[in-house]
Queue: 2 jobs
Job 1
Amino acid sequence: MDNQGLAMPVLNMAKAINAALHEEMERDPSVVVLGEDVGKRGGVFLVTEGLYERFGPSRVIDTPLSEGGIIGFAMGMAMAGLRPVAEIQFVDFIWLGADELINHLAKLRYRSGGNYAAPVVVRSPYGAGVKSGLYHSQSPEAHFAHALGLKVVVPSTPYDAKGLLKSAIRGNDPVVFLEPKLLYRAPREEVPEGDYTVPLGKARVVAEGDDVTVVTYGSMVHRAVEAAKRAKASVEVIDLRTLVPWDAETVLKSVKKTGRVLIVHEAPKFAGFGAEIAATVAEKAIDYLRAPIRRVAGPNVHQSPVAHDELYMPTVEKILAAVEELMGYD
Amino acid sequence: MEVEVGKEFPARYMVEAREPEVFTVLKPDGDVVEENYGVGYKPSWEELVSAYKYMVLGRALDKYALLYHRMGKVKSTYAPHEGHEAADVGTAMALRPEDWIAPYYRNLTLLLVRGVPLEVLWAKFMAKLGDPDKGRNLAVEWGGFRQWRLLSFGAPIGHHLIAAAGFAYGLRYRGGREVVAAYVGDGGTSTNGFYSSLIFSSVFSLPVAIFIYNNGYAISVPSSRQSKTKRLATRAAGFGVLGIAADGMDLLATLKAAKFAVEYARSNGPVLVELVTYRFGPHTTADDPQTKYRDRAEVEEAKSRDPVARLEKFLLRNGLLSEGEVKSIWQEAEERVKSAAKQAESLPDVPPEELYTDMFEEEVWITRD
């Protein structure tokens, strides 16, 4: 129980997202869920488990196997006043719906002069580290960010996942909600039963420190926190939680304090979201820097071969080494 | 080995597409095909005269849009729709006012029947203030014409068909009985949007009527490169959807087929209507068809089936209009088009500020960084 008497079950991220979907569908009859296997099967990661039994087939919709179909259909539903939450089974498959997502969903409000909006949430598991090869491991958040009309959200904890998903569903913009599949089952934490939201666009300072700022999100947050604990230096860890719009204010404030910045993500380093963060820091806070901006990210290869899945991923050790290197400048 | 269907392997285990005939009512001389004249919906004389007036208005608008484009006043690429007027008016008249339309880019007269004012269309052509899309799209991309129950269209072909299916799901979910009429060219029948729309709307039994304007070409590529069947309506069969083929240059045939299709969709689910037509002009103002991919003779033959002339002959023949009335309908249409253009010319430009609006519901810092 928390101090208001709410139950605080201990949940993993999959269960927390499932709770958010249950509560939002209960609260608002215009919320519907659609995707491949989301109905009776409850989703391949069981994220939509129990929704079909509770809300029935007109609100929990098993769709044909067509990602373009799912996203385009969801856009039409939203234009008619629904709030669809579409699941793309693995984000690697989203490219079959790239036209619907990037040319249409992202541009709808702009191209219609504000006369149409499509509040669609596209949920999808992303990321490597589970030995799943080139088509169940991708981390393509930078592509979605560059589309500009999409909000891009990447939770790292069960609590945030539930609160961020509720904000995404209630907002009137399309959102790509990327769920780190590495974190679906663990860690677990106390998640309040019932209503709360976490606002989009606000980062969370996970650990405070004075020497180095580590900016990260999603699957890499826990590795960064572990590295911060083990580092000799005093490390501040910022979990962005939202990439579009990302919380530059919190990042810049921290960088101005520490003078050193390390960006960590599992997507390939080249043209990754880290490049945007690095450029912004360089544009707005270069005078405060005591060391070069550093990135620890996936190598610039296809994410990620089964045989080299572990080798591909940024690790606590790689983050620690970069922190040490940054501390070498003064 | 020579393989013959039904010989080595029994025909009862096989399925083949059956090519339908093309439903026609009006002959080129304005006479009617008697056995088809009585089929289905019987429009009143007033409706037919009104249909004719819209077709003339659409053609006049096309003519002046091209003229103004040459003068540099239509800001972006324009796609003339001459030859499509009967298909536009016949299908639009088949809809109820509460029904929705997912237009494609060669549907200008359809918008006129829907009640979009000429002044608004000119504002759009000239990318002026008063364009619902704030001057962001090409002259014939209908982005935000929501107040006339038009869904949003952007140039990549086919996507709007799957959005139309989702929209129909939303309407039905909320208890409505409206139909969504969706439009696409022959080239569009090869797209993911076309197929996903047929799949989704058929498995969910949605009230969607898809109208294919088969004008023979996707820019320069003939429809034989989109389908091995002659009739694109055959594509419905594999989805368990009803397919219909009608003469899209024949107002009466289009209207009768569309009326049936729309009411069928309302009660039974999706239907696919191929309207066989022809585009008299180029694909767009950036295209030159006469010299590169079509014979002059072919174009002239199609023009002998001109939808406006056919209905005009029918109306004259039946004494519903006189030569004098026809003349004044044309004059009035041209006057209305020109006067609306003049009005639009005096509209202010879209302010620079609008470059940054409508990215999100509430502005985010990134937009102006």
Note: The mean pLDDT of chain A is 97.
Job 2
Amino acid sequence: MSEAAKSHDAVLADLKKEELKWIKEKYRRRKRRKVRLSRSWKGDVFVILVLIVFGSFSAYPLIFTITNSLKPLDEIFKFPPRLFPQHITFEHFIDLFNLIGNTQIPISRYLVNTILITALGTAGHVFLASLCAYPLAKHKFPGKHLINQMIVYSLMFSAAVTMIPTYMISSWLGLIDSQLAIIIPAFGFSLGIFLMRQFINTIPDELLEAAKIDGATEYQIFFRIVMPLVKPAWLTLIILLFQQLWGTDGGNYIFTENLKPLSYALSQIVAGGVPRTGTAAAVTVIMLIVPITIFIINQSRVLDTMAHSGLK
Amino acid sequence: MNNVVTKKRLTLWDKIKKNKVSYTMVAPFFLVFFTFTLLPVIMSFTLSFTSFDMLQAPKFIGLNNYINLFLNDEVFLIALKNTFILAVITGPVSYIMAFVFAWLINELPRKIRWLLTLIFYAPSISGSAYLLWLLIFSSDMHGVLNASLMNLGLINAPILWLDTPKYALPILIIVQLWLSLGVSFLAFIAGLQTVDKTLYEAGAIDGIRNRWQELWYITLPQMKPQLMFGAVMQITNSLGIAAVSINLLGFPSVEYSGHTIVTHLMDFGSTNSTRLEMGYASAVATILFFIMLGTNLIVQKIIRRVGS
């Protein structure tokens, strides 16, 4: 008995070593060596100019939104408009919180709804997609190729195509006017499972074989080996789905006021028109700051996943 | 003969039984995927041959919906034309932009590369921030574009950018391009970083003289899988333009100048719409489905051929 346990430990240690080797290999490949070949200084100057011009085009609207939210109202409507405020004020953010405090349903309600939708939808998707991606990447069974094929094809059309039947199905399942109408379909996000499968593909088979020889069940392999190794892919799935769910306004699916998400409440404030221009900017800043912050924190892990996104 | 068939069936069944665990792992996700992605495609296809208002049972009317779309619905033809123009421009341009920027920032020092990745990618994840373009294209003299042009003395009176049909498509194209450096851009950056650096050194010895040759002979062939993935993302996006049009130009836009296949679909098939002609809308959806799938498959074939 103790001998069996010992060999189990030894195999585990071996696994750890192999895992480490694999990870080291992965990072060694990413380490950048200085290779500068066939470059002319004219080319470099041109590249820098292009990047500055298009970088400004990309950044200008977002910076403009942020600075607008910090300008007093008379400065927003100044002619000609200026990018940076002369006097910085937080009045729009304060107004926003006052406005929100005066509505019938407290803002915290909308915020809780959005957090609930985003958290449950994302967590469910990451778990189910990884669970499904593992056999699709590493097992051999009848129908696997067909399922993989269907997933790739599903990347080739957008959700608008299936809008009507999706509504009908949600209504048959009794999901209408419930947050589940947003949460459950999010589980089946096809880009997520595609990226997860590609990432799991890169795990060396020997790692899994070793565990199998040791007598681990498929579920044990999944939870103890696969899941910890695909953390970068989790984060990518989380970011991609988070960004969709965070911005959802419930659309056609949620009618009851106190079930609606934050994005809906904020769009109502923005609909207040010209006098709310400043508040609208504050709203936009709040909505965009969360996904961007999450991306900032996880950029390198996302890129790590995307390296394996290719279609063959 | 009979014997062979049963034997074959048995082995398939055995295989399925042997892989029970794999199926239990696949099942939960697949169930949701089937219910909300595959089944709707089949239903949409079926409904497109019916007249259906959600209240009464669907009535089979053959190809009537399709005939009406192409022969009696001028607005659909406008939508088709607009979608086509938008896709032909934003699709390839955004695809090339995503690759070129990824390629240009690839060699920069790590920190600058990080910052530029963030700057280029940020618009596509900032949700409704594109509404800010309303301020830029605003029709009064406080609009950023009008103010700038008036300041420079190029125009005397503010232009009604968002309400003038001839500006509709150019505005949509600009905003859509601004939003378009998304997942495929990230895939390209990541793909470029995995290209084996020793290949460049070898290439230099073999007589590769400049960036362009290096790109054409070494980088692009190495990146083929990412290039195919990026193409799928950009094609699907550029054919599905709707939200930007609705929020910037209105729904419907002036003289349908920003109408696309998806906005046409929403006009008939959204549950907020008063029309509720689900059969007709399903025909629109089915046409869009085949346009998207067809374009993707053709482009895949072309990219697969590059460098081989």
Note: Chain B has a mean pLDDT of 88.
